[in-house]
Amino acid sequence: MLGQLAWSGNFKIDFEVDSYENLRLIAGINPYASEYALAANKTFKTPSFIYTISEKGTGEASRNLHNWARKYRVLDGEGERLTLLNNWEATYFNFDENKLTELFKDANDLGVDLFLLDDGWFGNKYPRNGDNAGLGDWQENVKKLPNGIGYLVKEATKAGVKFGIWIEPEMVNPKSELYENHLDWVIRQPDRPEVYFRNQLVLDMSNPEVQDFVFDIVDNLFTQNPDLAFIKWDCNSVIYNANSEYLKKQGLPQSHLYVDYVHGLYSVLERLRKISKSTDDALFRWRWPCRLRTAEILYRILAER
């Protein structure tokens, strides 16, 4: 058996063998720090467990899951995939318009279909010239990109390649305007020292205002750049000192945070699906190295307005 819980948060899978050597598997949301009080007339849907059985080892099991995903979950899952060129290893944070256009001008001749602009394109008061500043301030950096994202999309189109962009909208650097203006949106313990992973903290997705903020980042990118073809949505930090100011104001227990965070994220994704004529089932790439998210999931938006 090879399987995975269909849940983007903490999970727990138990395996029990009884005295008759029967195997029992129990999978679900991890109950650690997640006691959940369900209000009257409300429903709570537990996540599905997606699995396959193989009599020929993990290879067949893996192929079974891949075939299922291509047929039933991923948009055009059995179609062709784009070849992608990412600027990250070539430039890291050190780039401007000219350097980027030079990278993709001959990409089509090499068989590349899509150019992806990675981290570092945003932030002005606190420019994103490293991973210690600017995260959360989603405006084009005027020194690096004086003509904006739209110019790069047009230039890439002229070069015969599609254009994509990196975001991480549910995260924030303490050195950012977002942190200065909306400290109550940040998951943190006010009376404890902040602990950072990649110099950043996690925004509170249980808060509807944060959900609107994250939705607007994605929506505005596609509204302002209708030909934008791809978003790489990263997730490079863990949650330390879990505490929600929003839940506190609502009179809800902090043990709701891990569950309501995921529900808030799913709410944003559902809104994005509704405004887009064509979306992949998997919508972004997340890399969580901790127990909050343990799998790397590839998601993509292909927006047709």
Strand content: 5-15%
Question: So, the CATH homologous superfamily of the largest domain?
Answer: Aldolase class I
Distance between the termini: 41 Å
Query: Order of helices and strands, N to C?
Result: EEEEHEHHEHEEHEHEHH
Strand order of the largest sheet: 5-6-7-10
Instruction: Please work out how many helical segments DSSP would assign.
Output: 8
Give the structural class. Answer: alpha/beta
Number of domains: 2
Shape: globular
Total strands: the figure is 10
Verbal overview:
The chain has 2 domains: 2-72, no CATH class; 84-275, Aldolase class I (TIM Barrel, Alpha-Beta Barrel), CATH 3.20.20.70. The chain is built from 8 helices and 10 strands. The protein has helices at 57-72, 88-91, 97-104, 148-158, 177-181, 208-224, 245-250, 257-275; strands spanning 2-5, 11-17, 23-29, 49-52, 84-86, 114-117, 162-167, 171-172, 201-202, 230-233. The chain has a 4-stranded parallel beta sheet with strand order 5-6-7-10. Strands 1-4 form a two-stranded antiparallel ribbon. Mean pLDDT is 89; it is low at 278-305.
List keywords for this structure.
four-stranded parallel beta sheet, 305 residues, alpha/beta, 2 domains, disordered C terminus, TIM Barrel
Write the layout of secondary structure elements.
Elements: E1 2-5, E2 11-17, E3 23-29, E4 49-52, H1 57-72, E5 84-86, H2 88-91, H3 97-104, E6 114-117, H4 148-158, E7 162-167, E8 171-172, H5 177-181, E9 201-202, H6 208-224, E10 230-233, H7 245-250, H8 257-275
Helix pairs in contact: 6-8
